[in-house]
Amino acid sequence: MLSDELDLRKQNIHLMGVGGSGMSSLAILLREMGANVSGCDTALSSYTDKLEAKGIRVKVGHDQQHINEFMANILVYSSAIPNDHPEILRAWQQGITVCRRAEILSAVFNTHRGIGVAGTHGKTTTSSMVSVVLENAGLDPSIAVGGEVLQLKTNAKLGKGEFMSAELDESDRSFVYFHPEIAIVTNIDWDHRDHYMTFKSVTDAFAEFLSNIKQGGCVILFADDPGVKDLLQNYKIDKEIITYGLGINFDYGAINLSYKDGGGISYDLYKKGGFVTSIELQISGEHNVLNSLATIAACERCGLSIEQIKPGLALFVGAKRRLQRKGEVAGVLVYDDYGHHPNEIIATLKTMRQIFKNRRIVAIFQPHRFSRTAALYKEFAEALSLADRALILPIYGSDERPIDGISSKLIFDAASSDARSHYELSGSFDDLVNTVCNVARPGDVFVTLGAGSVGTLGEKILDNLKKTRH
């Protein structure tokens, strides 16, 4: 466990799993605080490239020799690494402080006026949006989010201001370490079934998280979400509650949504039933309107006026891998999205339908984790039916071992008989790239979906299209 008296600025801190978005953001924060930071991961990534540019040494692979090589006195490990790993055991044997990512990040977060964004979906975009608005208003916040904020070209920074915007992860219950002044809950869904055996165990965790809000703080809730409704109905929340949603019967509401062809959306903002102003966003989708309402509520609570908030919202272009436009070749558009839960895929595909009304939409989906696929394969099949065609890759297992009988074919087989012809199983990235280049026609919009390695596929498709179409 982490000692309250430990000054992180004076430590040699080694991070296992540093190539991921969450761990790399922590590494940047610690480095900017003045700590001597090193890290390791099974493979290099765009995040590790940026860490090394900041003077953080990164090793490929996990090895117990790292403890002595980097003279670490704190070892931090990600949730993807088992706590009986030899590198962790060596640290314990040598009396080195060993802790999870959330223990270290919360030690930084809890000393700030923290805006903590929790929820099953929408955390990265909302925490990124809050960060951009606060930054644009000159408040110089510290930030730690789960994806690169495109505006800021980073997923973390140590600001000089009193506020900190952070994405808080419920997947392993580690968000209970955090004590925000302002807590946002975007929604509550039963995901991460490898950790939560029942939906009640999920709402129990959120209730514990909300009990940790600082005195005088508040919770900002998407009040129309079924999981949030369950939370409000069955748990006592003794903090100020601020609600948001589509309509005018909320503390912050939106009506008259207007989609722009090719992307972007505007809406009329209402506060406690009264019209306030019109809001313009460069990003699209009802879910992003909701994310912006949560952002407005949080930033007003930070002392900003609506007129100070609006420019930051209008500037926001999204976070990396959140419906990110990758490029266009010969009239074929390619997007990338992190969506790896059926509800996220539905939101993404509905948004694409609204901004590309007359174009063929092709979804390329890589299921993430065997346990999630086993639990939700029927829902995945239904979600993918919103595309004109769905190409399904093998499961990306992450830190899970394969489960007998669980494969992407479950999703294919669950598709309705009348839609089955629109689904196709693909054996590898190379096979899929060849398929795309054979079937793509001008006007098509392809979107890669998933939390695994599929995020690299868009560039491969675009490169191949350039070779074959030019």
What labels would you give this structure?
470 residues; alpha/beta; 10-stranded mixed β-sheet; 6-stranded mixed β-sheet; 21 strands; 34% helix; globular
How would you sum up the major sheet?
Answer: 10 strands, mixed
**Tally of separate helices:** 15
Q: How many strands?
A: 21
Mean pLDDT: 89
Percentage of residues in helical conformation: 25-40%
Can you walk through the features of this model?
- The protein is built from 15 helices and 21 strands.
- It is of the alpha/beta class.
- The radius of gyration is 22 Å and the shape is globular.
- The chain starts with 11 loop residues before the first strand and ends with a helix.
- The relative contact order is 0.09.
Quick gist of this model?
This protein has 15 helices and 21 strands. The chain is an alpha/beta fold and 470 residues long. The strands form three sheets. The protein has a ten-stranded mixed β-sheet with strand order 8-7-9-6-10-11-12-13-14-15, sandwiched between helices. It has a six-stranded mixed β-sheet with strand order 16-17-21-18-19-20, sandwiched between helices.
Topology of this structure?
Elements: E1 12-16, H1 21-33, E2 36-41, H2 46-53, E3 57-60, H3 66-69, E4 74-77, H4 86-93, E5 97-100, H5 101-109, E6 113-118, H6 123-136, E7 142-149, E8 154-157, E9 163-167, E10 182-185, H7 199-210, E11 218-222, H8 226-234, E12 240-246, E13 252-259, E14 265-271, E15 274-281, H9 286-301, H10 306-315, E16 324-329, E17 332-337, H11 342-355, E18 361-365, H12 370-384, E19 389-392, H13 409-414, E20 423-425, H14 429-439, E21 445-449, H15 457-469
Parallel strand pairs: 1-2, 1-4, 2-3, 4-5, 6-9, 6-10, 7-9, 10-11, 11-12, 12-13, 17-21, 18-19, 18-21, 19-20
Antiparallel strand pairs: 7-8, 13-14, 14-15, 16-17
Helix pairs in contact: 6-9, 6-10, 7-8, 11-12, 14-15
